[in-house]
Amino acid sequence: SEIATMMDVSTTEIISACMSLGIMVTMNQRLDAETLSIVADEFGYEVEFVAADLEETIKIAADAEKDLKPRAPIVTVMGHVDHGKTSLLDYVREANVIAGESGGITQHIGAYGVTLKDGQKITFLDTPGHEAFTAMRARGAQVTDIAVIVIAADDDIMPQTKEAISHAQAANVPIVFAINKIDRSAANPDKIKEGLSQMNLLVEDWGGKIQSQDISAKTGEGVEELLEKVLLEAELLELKANPDKIANGTVVEAFLDKGRGYVSTILVQGGTLKIGDYVLAGTHSGKVKAMQDERGNSIPTAGPATPISILGLDGAPQAGDKFNVLEDERDAKQIATKRSQLRREQSVRTQRHITLDEIGRRIALGDFKELNIILKGDVDGSVEALTDSFQKLSTEEIQVNIIHKGVGAITESDVLLASASDAIIIGFNVRPMGNARDVAEKEEIDIRMYSIIYDAINDLKDAMEGMLSPEI
Ligand code: GDP
């Protein structure tokens, strides 16, 4: 009815226009972006999406090739619980004497940079785990360049190891494996490498291309070599940024400090941030009053791939929020206010994820080329059988990708991955666990549960042919 009023036509006309597109709607239903565009077009209008665009209001001009300078890689450490992620991050943090820098890293600001002997730098995100990584991605922030996946050599390739691998792959982020705890007598790095090869992940010693390094996060053995391999991987990525412009980047974390006010750690991704700049970060804004690095040093400027904590924002933005420097303080304030209004209006959603019912229509519209699926099942056999069958449903128009599969209940991390990668979740004889259902509802992720293989395959096939009748 809102769009009817805007175009000055009757609601019935909108409803019948939708019907002719094969969509049954009621007066109070929200239409998605494509439907809105098509319906408006029928009546000779063009839709401009103001709300959806708001997050993008700050357009960053593309940089000229000549302005781009090499920048440090940004690394996230992932892996199964207790395999040594924190120990590795701590070791690297403390061993930063590698470069003979005076004063260790004293502050936990959510990210830190290290300089190696030859002067090369690496930036580590200090929140290990694929959940944090994918939660950021679900908010639209792609920060990580390289994922270091830690696997304990005295254990097996565990479910969360597999998850971490899927999450990195779904984000298209190259992996470097760190086979950890080799100081332990029970360590068997070869067994881990063999396990990886069975998952089609061939590390270099096994004739493949994926880098891997045996390490001990406890004694430090192999850690330097690991960092060198990370740099090698970074070289292939040719990471560059333009330092000579106003800054933009992503919020890593933020909190309220009783004495200092709101402290936000941000990662500069382009340009250089200076004290005195007007910053817009998510729904907050402010003038940068002070900047500190991870060593507690006050610094006047911060260039690409530098993590810093800043003072001066009027609130705590969320991890994964983008930040931009604006010329005008008032602009920054205005946009921040507008954004928080929008976020408050819960009904205004800027992101809606694919559902099984919608697939047929999206394919018909021609803008949908890949269907991402997360598949969880009770036993390996059915997961493999479904993977095969689903993949065989791929057609010339649409490719079916199983971006993650595993045995076990549907977890919150599955839902986050679905949100970050616009995927649907299919559960075979398993259900959502813990928070997963709530998060799925909030993120509008379609979870389908089946107990008969044939039904799952048929539903997907029907959906892809646009034949699925909507779920009542
Ligand atoms: P996370 O859960 O992946 O962050 O794992 P932690 O870093 O907390 O490590 C889990 C346990 O393994 C701790 O008790 C560590 O001391 C131990 N640990 C981690 N790395 C090593 C290692 O290289 N050698 C040995 N012997 N123990 C390690």
From TrEMBL:
Cell compartments where the protein resides: Cytoplasm
Domain Tr-type G: 70-240
Protein name: Translation initiation factor IF-2
Keywords on record: Cytoplasm, GTP-binding, Initiation factor, Nucleotide-binding, Protein biosynthesis
Principal subcellular localisation of the protein: cytoplasm
Domain of life: Bacteria
Any coiled-coil regions, as ranges: none
Family: Belongs to the TRAFAC class translation factor GTPase superfamily. Classic translation factor GTPase family. IF-2 subfamily.
Recorded name of the encoding gene: infB
Species of origin: Pricia antarctica
Section of the entire sequence shown: 340 to 811 of 913
Residues that, per the record, bind GTP: 79-86, 126-130, 180-183
UniProt function note: One of the essential components for the initiation of protein synthesis. Protects formylmethionyl-tRNA from spontaneous hydrolysis and promotes its binding to the 30S ribosomal subunits. Also involved in the hydrolysis of GTP during the formation of the 70S ribosomal complex.
GO MF annotation, one: GTP binding
A Gene Ontology cellular-component term: cytoplasm
